[in-house]
Amino acid sequence: MKFNIYVLLCLILCVNTLTSQKKNADYRLHIKKTNYPVVIDGIGNDKAWEDADEAKDFFRVLPMDDGLANEQSAIKMTYDDKNLYLLATFYNATEANYFVESLRRDFSFGKNDNFLLFLDPFNNQTTGFSFGSNAFGAQWDGTMYDGSRIDLNWDSKWISEVTRDDDKWVFEMAVPFKSIRYEEGVTEWGINFSRLDLKSSEKSSWTPIPRQFPTAALAYTGTLVWDNPPPALGTNFSIIPYVLGEVNRDLEANEDTKTNGKIGGDVKFSLTSSLNLDLTVNPDFSQVEVDRQVTNLDRFELFFPERRQFFLENGDLFANFGYETIRPFFSRRIGLGVPIQAGARVSGNLNEKWRMGLMDMQTASVDETGLPSQNFGVLSLQRKVFGRSNIGLMVVNKQSINYPSENDSINSQYAKYNRNLGLEYNLASSNNLWNGKAFLLKSLAPDENGKGIAQGAHLQYSSRKWSWRLQEEWVSNDYTAEVGYVPRRNYIKFSGKLGHLFFPKGGPLVSHGPELNINYFFNEALRQTDHLAYLVYNFDFRKRSSLMFFVSDDYVELLSPFDPTRLGIADLATGTKHQWNAFGWEYQSKPQSLFTYSFAGRLGGYYQDGNRTSLTTELGYRFQPYVSLSANLNYNHIDLPAPWNTNEFWLIGAEADITFTNKLFFANLVQYNEQTGNMNLNSRFQWRYSPASDLFLVYTNNYFVTPFETRNWGLTLKFTYWLNN
């Protein structure tokens, strides 16, 4: 019943709010084909630019969306048979003082003077591509989804250059048409341009955008008008082979040093200009950035994001179904401690209304544990409805191959197969003020205990001054998603938030205001098991620093045994009830300083009438643009009755990011986790010797904290090359 009510509410709102015209349809930039060569040098004096139309008169978005930007910008675009070209000039109203972190790709948006391009080739206002650069030439690229979100793990083949002086900085780029997806024959794309200028604390956009939305909001794009349809791509494929050699040793298992060689690679083949086939054979992800460790005092499994390249393009089709804690598909379940033999994926747009994602992955068996080889299949279909909303269908199948019944005791009781079927409706209004979702999931398994249901729905409103959200969830006790991320089952949840902002007319503050959040959990008999309510007050300053205070109220009835220190000392019993209050704060310094810092804290109660103090700080210093140093420190002090008594532990991370050029990087990360008794070192050297082609040298070493000695170490040399037809 709850599900039907929310679907009806979403449909009514959809009919009322989605049929209006695109908000910034009148902002049009005409692009004409050039017959002259374009040299990508960051100067922009080629004859091809002389007749190109210009997008200028940018609007201010932050600190307030109240008129034209003080720091003005000008954009020109042109194209030929192979590439899309862009020339951007950013003028300085005052003497230049550029701020960047480093030359690292896919930089942090808020900590760099930068320019970003947002492309919506399908005019669906929900998906697209983003390209850009900071003021010293570090590149940015990603795929866009959910109307404004960007996945920076996506990497493509393109070139750019930057020049700068006191009066301006200039960015010039060329993106091969083969590096993006679009529908053939279409002569209008959604497009927008964004600039962040830290010296003036001003973010601006070519089209006007309300300040509560990111400049990446595709609902507010203008229109790129082609003089002729972009060139048909014809047959387009890329081969990305790799070869690697590695040396490693596991001292914890008392193994000898091992050497190993490996080859494999990916193939990308365009079935159409907007639908792509990806194949991978014997994939390797040794160069992927390591996970950041966290102090874990949660009762449930932690989430770590996917970083492997093969799973990322059009990843929203697979990864965004459901909620963050109710995902029927989570790609990190594939290849978890077992080798992936091969995989295939078809993803992209079938036409203006339909998107599809189809994936199949095969893993090898593991003789040591008796785990059989497994096949993972996923189908995702998405149908655009009304203006920006969509209806989605998902099917997930995990199937063990040649599964021997005598191994049942060492595997999950559902290891033979596990399936999920899902239906979802996503609401997005034309003006972005209203957003919502409603979904229903059904799991299938050999045992009746694995045949359950999960369901959720929410409705959200976001204006300049007011924001609110209402949400409900239900996960039955017998719902299973072995290829998903569902850390909690057997609950019904009701949650909501209400926030308001005040905007002073002057002074150091841009805005301030309260926000109330409530979360109530019940079992399936509708008996309350826990709740979390907290009141936040936020302060945002004109120089982009921020301050927040909160007070909270927690109540927990344990549904299973739990060690509140996660140190293995003892467990609190199932059914015990705990309540406490806490107070906390967080401050972020302005990003313009060479020395940046943040500090956060939490003081208050804890389980068993105990107390917990948590202090966190992040420190950073940069020798721009070549060296960025940072340190993260987290300290927890927990007082409990016996047998836990008093415990304290540190989590320390230190990072040195050295960027010799925007093609030569050396990243070093050291993490010390006293809670888990582990220290980790990861050093990664990367040379991007050609667009999208790299040489990696990666060294890892894990240590025991007590006694301090090596657990395991490894050294990998990997070579990849991107070959286009």
Automatic annotation (TrEMBL):
This protein's record includes keyword Hydrolase: yes
Keyword Hydrolase: yes
Domain Carbohydrate-binding: 40-199
Source organism superkingdom: Bacteria
Cited Pfam families: CBM9_1, DUF5916
Biological process annotations from GO: carbohydrate catabolic process
MF terms in GO: carbohydrate binding; hydrolase activity, hydrolyzing O-glycosyl compounds
Domain DUF5916 span(s) in chain numbering: 237-340, 421-639
Keywords from the UniProt entry: Hydrolase
Name of the protein: Hydrolase
